[in-house]
Amino acid sequence: MRLSLLLLLLLPGPPPALGMEDAAFPHPGESSQPPPRACPLRCSCPRDDTVDCDGLDLQVFPDNITRAAQHLSLQNNQLQELPYNELSRLSSLRTLNLHNNLISSEGLPDEAFESLTQLQHISVAQNKVSPPGAGPPAPCSWTAWGGGAAGPAQLAPQLSVAPQFLPRSLRVADLAANQMTEIFPLTFGEKPALRAVYLHNNQLGNAGLPPDAFRGSAAVATLSLSSNRLRYVPPSLPPALERLHLQNNLISKVPRGALSRQTHLRELHLQHNQLTDSGLDATTFSKLHRLEYLDLSHNQLAAVPAGLPRTLAVLHLGRNRIRQVEAARLRGARGLRYLLLQHNPLGAAGLPAGALRPLRGLHTLHLYGNGLDRVPPALPRRLRALVLPHNRVAMLGARDLAATPGLTELNLAYNRLASAHVHPRAFRRLRALRSLDLAGNQLTRLPAGLPAGLHTLRLQRNQLRALEPEPLVGLDQLRDLSLAHNQLRVGDIGPGTWHELQALQVRGGLVLDLSHNQLSFMPPDLPEALEELHLQGNRISYVGPEAFLSTPRLRALFLRANRLHMTSIAPEAFLGLPHLRVVDTAGNPEQVLVRLPPTAPRRPRAEGP
Questions:
Q1: Cα(558)–Cα(218) distance, rounded to whole angstroms?
Q2: How far apart, in whole angstroms, are the C-alpha atoms of residue 360 and residue 383?
Q3: Can you name the CATH fold of 43-132+157-229?
C-alpha cells in the first residue's frame, strides 16, 4: 500500500485527492499559511464574524459574505432591495445594519428575515427613497426629519409598510425615519427578548398600529413613536415600558386605562401634541408609580393635570395655557424637584400663596415668559434655582425672597425692576446665592446688599450711569461681572470702585465685561485678578503704557469696534503681561499694530535620580 502511494506521488501532474489528514501537508511551492478569509469586494472584515460594508455606494447586495458572519453593516449605501436567497444563507447573523439605504416595501420581501433565527439587532432606519431623478438622499437627523409626503409628480417607492415577520430572537429593532403607515401583529409581537423599538419619524396613525402589536413581547422597555400621526395614546402598550416617546404627534386624548398597566414607566414624553384638559382625567397618570419624568409642554392644557404620582421628579408644563396653579393638583407630587412653567399666561394671581407649598423638595422653578408682576409668595424653602426672566416684576421688597434662603441661582432678567424699587435688604437672606442675573431691567445703579458669595453678577442692558465702590464691598468670590450695554463713562466710575475687587482670590480669575458703553479711554486701577476684559463697542481711541500695570494675570483683551488707529496702543502697554494671548482690535477705523509679549519660558522640571 505504501509503495503504491509513493508511486502515485512520483507521477507527473497534480496529485490525486488525498484524505483530510494528508491534505494538511503543503505541496511544493505552496505556503504553509492558511488561505485568506473570503470578504466581499471593497468591504472590510476585521474579524471572522464581522463584515463592514459601510458607505461604499453599493447598489447590489454583496456576495461572498461568509456564512459565519454574525455582524453585518450595510449602512449608508444605495441598496434598493434585499435578495432573500443571499440573506437566507446568513443564519448566524446577530446584528444587521441597513440604515440609510434606498430600500422600499417592494424591495423587502415578507420572508426576508425568516431564516435569521439568531438576529438580535436590526436597523432599517432612514430608507428614504428619493423621487425619480433626484439622486440618493442626503443623510439627515432622525429627530429633525419632517416626514412630508412627496407631491403627485414626485412619487417614488417608499418603505411604507413594516416587515410582516421579524425573528423571535430580536432584542432591538430600529425602523425610524421612513414612511411607514402600517405595522403587523408579528412585526414586533411574539418577541420575548425584545427590549427596544424605534419607530419615530414615520407616518403611523392609530389605524396602522394594531391592538396586538406587542402581544407576546412583554419585555419591551423603550418604545419611540414620536413624530408620527397618532391622535390618541395607543392601547395595549407593553407592560414593562420604562421609556415612552410620543412627542410630535396629533394626540388630543389619553384614553382611560391606556397607561394603567405601565407601572414600570419612568419617562413619558407627550410634548408637542394637542392635549387639552378634557383629554386627561384624574386616573391618567395615577397608576404610574415609578414615573420620574413627564413632559407635557407645547400642548393646550389650562390646568396642572390631576393625579400626578409621588415619584415624579421633573414636570414640564411649558408652552401651555395655564393661568393658575392649584396646590391641590400638586399635592400628590410631593417628590417633585423640577417644575417648568415657562411661557404660560400666569398673571398676578397665577401662583397664589401656598400654591407650591406641597413641593417641599422643589429644587428648580422655571417661570420664564409669564405675566407675573412680583416674585411669587411662600415659595418652597429648599428651592435652589428661581428662573423668572421676561415677566413684569417691578419691585423687590425686603422679604420677597426671605422664604428661600438656600437659593443659589436667581434670574430676574428682562423684567421691569428700577433701582428705586429694589429694597436695600432684598438679597440679605440669600447667603448661598452664587448667580444673580438682573440683565435687561431699568436699574441705574448697582443693587445694595449683594451676597458675599456671588460668583456671577449680570447687569447688562440696564441704564447704569454710575458705579460706586460700596455695592462691591466683600464680593471676593466674584468670577464674572457683566456691565455691558449700559451708559457708563470713565468719569462715572467712582474712585476705588475696582479696589473693592482687588482682594479676589478666585481660581480661574475674573471676567469683566464693559462692552458697549461710552468709555473714551481705559478704566484705571482695574482689579489684579482680572483675566478677561471686554471693552468692545466703546469710544476708546488710546491705550497708554500704564493701562495694564494693575492686571498682571490678563489673558484676553477685546477692543473691537472702538476708535483706535494704527499707533493708538503704546508699545509698552502689554509689557508685564506674560499670560496675554488674545488681543482683538478688529473693526476699528485703522488696522492696529499689536505686539504681544514673548511667552515666558517654562522652568525645567526637576528629574529624579
A1: 61
A2: 8
A3: 3.80.10
